[in-house]
Amino acid sequence: MSKTLSPKPVEELTYEEAFAELETIVDALEGDASQNPLEDAMSLFERGQALVKRCSELLDGAELKVRQLSGEELSEFEPEE
Amino acid sequence: MSQPSLFASVTWTVSRLTQHIRTLLESDVVLQDVWVQGEISNLGRPASGHIYFTLKDAGASLRGVMWKGDARRLTLPLQDGIEIEAHGHIGVYEPQGQYQFYADLIRPLGEGLLYQEFLRLKALLEAEGLFDPERKRPIPELPRLIGIVTSATGAALRDMLNTLRRRLPLVEVILAATPVQGVEAPPQLVIALAALNLFRPDVILLARGGGSIEDLWAFNDERVVRAVVASNVPVISGVGHETDFTLCDFAADLRAPTPTAAAELATPITITDLSAYLRGMKTRLAASTLSLLAAHQNGLAASAARLRFVSPLRRIQTDRQRLDDFARRELSALQHRLALDDSRLKGYERRLESLNPLAVLGRGYALVTRHADGKLVSQVGQVKAGDEIQIRVSDGAFDAAVLQDKES
To answer: Which of A62, B291, B322, B395: disulfide with B169, CB 3.0–4.6 Å?
Structure first.
């Protein structure tokens, strides 16, 4: 298998990780075709599709997360009116 | 405590009492023609053209107003923090029960003390290199974690969170809430910056909404400035309004004119950009895979052609042809050599014939050899009496003996 494949399931990746891996995969696929055995290429493509899906979900579901620091403890932020 | 007298003078209305105070103040010679010195703050210049301000020093403050007519003659650009001398009189603004200073002339008295302190500290820190452009760190393009140091209750926080929510809701925020004015503000700001640093955010926003120069003063505090410099994480300052500059602004890696602008500068890439990048990447993924498949297909066709070219059947045919060729060439070479050898042999035969010594014998000559060793005898000294010799003539040989030595 190609060494660009991360062992992590896509569901555990942050947006940055998922997008960075997607970029690597597309770069590899756009590279010299002879470098890519067909079987590897198809795995790359499938992984890439999963990463696109992961990224879309993260973008669609993004909600600003705010925590408040008191002393050295973090707690959920409650806006004061 | 004595009981109020039932026979006191008549009860005054507020207006009447206020008027009395006003009369008192306005009849005082000193108060009606006075120069006063102080620092301007809370400067307000509404559309009416009148100027409102507070004059203050360390111990007291005095509300002041300058009417439009006098204000028009001002040569000094008024701003908060500057120290001035003003001429005018004291009067009473009855609706609010406030005495105030009616200025008709304002002139500068050097720079305000706060401003002088600001300049002194700025020069000091500048000389230390704390404001050097080389110190400025780049702001990450796509932050994951943003630290915010500001008041938990101010509009600044609300503005920043709204801006971040709109531009990059993927981001996580850690708020270190602190007072942003008053004596306790500087040490709390220092603690907040240090505490946030422990969480290694990608960038820290240090912000406060607008206010007077006194309100913003904590951001000119040397301790806070040094804490900004000491931060391991890039700091964006967004203090006050567009025109306000604090020392923290100079020390920060990036200065934003307002808290909202600070949040914008912290998120140069927005979620809209990310969606566009992702769409592009999706297209590239499909396109590259398709062209890869096409390339493999072409490669397959080429391989098939090459396979035919290198097939063993073809080799065998080729080899057979080469063998035939070789055999043909070998045969003709052999024939050629045989012919050559034949003619060469005939030449030798002719030459041998001409050289045959026996042919001479036919003309009566004889060939004498010593019997003992078969050596040809061509001189008399080679034999002595009694030696057996062989004599060869044209048709054969016979043995003989030497009768006598003979000297040559």
So the answer is: A62
Q: Which residues of B239-255 are buried (b: 16+ CB within 10 A; e: fewer)?
A: bbeeebbbbbbbbbbbb
Per-block average pLDDT, block size 10, for chain B (408 residues)? 64 91 91 92 91 93 93 81 90 91 83 73 94 94 95 93 96 95 93 95 95 84 96 95 87 95 96 94 87 78 77 76 78 74 70 63 80 84 87 86 76
Closest CB from B169, B281, B285 relative to A63: B169
Closest chain A C-alpha to B77 CA, distance in angstroms: 38
ipTM, two decimals, is 0.84
Closest CA in chain B for residue A52: B282
- Residues in chain B within 8 Å Cβ distance of A72: 195, 198
* CATH class assigned to B118-269: alpha beta
Provide CATH 3.40.50.261 ranges for chain B: 118-269
Contact B170 A22 (CB under 8 A): no
Residues of A in contact with B277 (CB under 8 A): 19
Domain with CATH 2.40.50.140 in chain B: 14-110
What count of other Cβ atoms lies within 10 Å of the Cβ of residue B133?
5
> Each residue of A7-60: pLDDT tens digit?
689 899 989 899 999 999 888 888 765 666 777 778 888 898 999 999 999 999
CATH number of the domain at B14-110, please?
A: 2.40.50.140
Which among B170, B192, B285 is the nearest to A29, CB-wise?
B285
> Which residues from B are below 8 Å from A30, CB to CB?
284, 288
Which residue among A41, A58, A69 places its CB closest to the CB of B292?
A: A41
Interface test with A, best of B175, B289, B290, B300 (most A CBs within 10 A): B289
